[in-house]
Design goal:
Layout: H1 2-5, E1 10-15, E2 21-25, H2 37-45, H3 52-68
Length: 70
């Protein structure tokens, strides 16, 4: 598995004992943990408008549901 940790693909057992093809493992690109501020700002400009009152009401409803389930 070391090649996968270094972003290289590897083939596991090219042919199985019963004649089937083996498996090629390829690394997935790691997701970014942080988004640069400039990119966040640019994407936010095209986001739909959100009603602050509706958002707060949704948050209150969710919080009330959590509080009553305990």
């Amino acid at each position: 598995m070391a090649p996968l940790l270094h972003a290289r693909s590897m083939t596991v057992q090219p042919v199985t004992p019963d004649g089937r093809e083996g498996v090629k493992l390829i690394p997935l690109h790691r997701r970014r943990r942080f988004v640069p501020r400039t990119e966040f700002a640019a994407e936010s400009r095209s986001a739909p408008a959100v009603s602050l009152d509706a958002f707060r009401a949704d948050q209150e409803t969710a919080a009330d549901g959590l509080a009553s389930s305990r």
